[in-house]
Amino acid sequence: MSEVPKIIELAGVVDPFLNGGKLISYTSRYLTKTGENYGSIMLAITAKVQRLSGDVEELALVAKLPPITNDFFWNIFQPERTCRTEIAVYKYVAPALRQLQWEMGLDEEEIFDGFSIYYGSRVSLDPDSTRVDRNALLVQENLQASGFKPGNREKMFDLSHAKFILKEMAKYHALPIALRVKRPQVFEEDVRPYFRHFNIDSGLGEKEKKQVETDLLEQVAIATNNADRYVEGVRELYRDLQKYRDSVDEVKDNLYTTIVHYDLWINNIMLKYDDNGLPCKVKFVDFQISQYGSLAHDVVFFLFSSVESAVLDQHFDELISLYYQSFLNCLNSLKTPTESYSYVGFLKEVHKQAPIEIATALFMVKIILADHSTLPDDYKDLDLSVMSKNVGKENIIKRTSDIIRLAEKYNFFLSY
């Protein structure tokens, strides 16, 4: 790995969040390995903090920087948009949702706690600048130091994990809907403007876009023994995905529109476990490409990108029903009307959005299951060639085959 990037004026960002304390010094190291994170640089920070009492203690933090060492991913992730969106999650959305729950009378143990603690941010060293530059920064608690474990992208979630995560995901989706209904001015002024449609493909050239499609179709051809109906079916799905991303129309409010994460897979979900080894707390991370849209995007993408195939085969309907009921329970707890949320209507919404997310899951397989030997040692050398290098890998072909089979089983190749 290359030298760890230096953070200029870290104290100016974190000191206002130290309850009167101040940052004395810090050390840093890379938090993630190459291939674990693409849209940012993650640094683990050990901060020495002097409290008001004079005592000095260590605080474990994470500093998130835009992809300053990799111009390719800088262009793809477009920090001018993605940094602002993620900062808004911690600066505006999380506090607004917590305040709403408190005002609705929820006990502390009932309040959704799926966001990490925020320790400040900036878009530039210039306090008067409104433009994101290469000194942009987001600082959060180090969840690993708090007992949370990152997912393993080579090991999909089993049934107990899938159930727990879907329950918490349902709360994450229901809360912004309740905020929109209960506090429309707060929602329209402090939330909605930061989550407009985002096209991650716009940073790719035509040659790169064509290579991505070629690699995907080759992957599908190998997985299906060159079955034309599947290759052509996925070709249509992927082109529909591209049309969806290229759309300039903003999503209009409906029953299911909320703050969608749009990247809820194994690496962006951190879990804490109880004494029996079962998940008991979750934190969702990496909100860079979050958008306003249908909650069904997150549900389908999570299931097909991150849950064991056998679980999807045997428990899919159970998991969908569990999410739906948890979603209603959350809205009810916030005194938000639920009469219009029929299960049939919810299933129609899932089927409407599913084809887009099946295409996304198929595209992501090569990233999620990328062989470590195909990844460069240094993040600055990472590019889309990692996907081409992983076409034909046994585990990727198996997962591709499973996604196609299960999508067909649940009638997700065509929308309503």
CATH architecture of the domain at 88-115 and 150-410: Alpha-Beta Complex
CATH class of the domain at 88-115 and 150-410, anyone?
Answer: Alpha Beta
Mean pLDDT: 90
Overall, the morphology is globular
Q: Determine the CATH topology of the domain at 88-115 and 150-410.
A: Aminoglycoside 3'-phosphotransferase, Chain: A, domain 2
Total DSSP helices? 12
Distance from first to last alpha carbon: 48 Å
Radius of gyration: 21 Å
Describe the structure in your own words.
- With 416 residues, the chain is of the alpha+beta class.
- The chain has a domain at 88-115 and 150-410: Aminoglycoside 3'-phosphotransferase, Chain: A, domain 2 (Alpha-Beta Complex), CATH 3.90.1200.
- It contains twelve helices and ten strands.
- The strands form three sheets. A five-stranded antiparallel sheet has the order 1-2-3-5-4. Strands 6-8-9 form a three-stranded antiparallel sheet, covered by helices on one side. A two-stranded antiparallel sheet has the order 7-10.
- Helix 4 packs parallel to helix 9 (309-333) and helix 6 (206-223) packs across helix 12 (394-409).
- Residues 378-383 have low confidence and may be disordered.
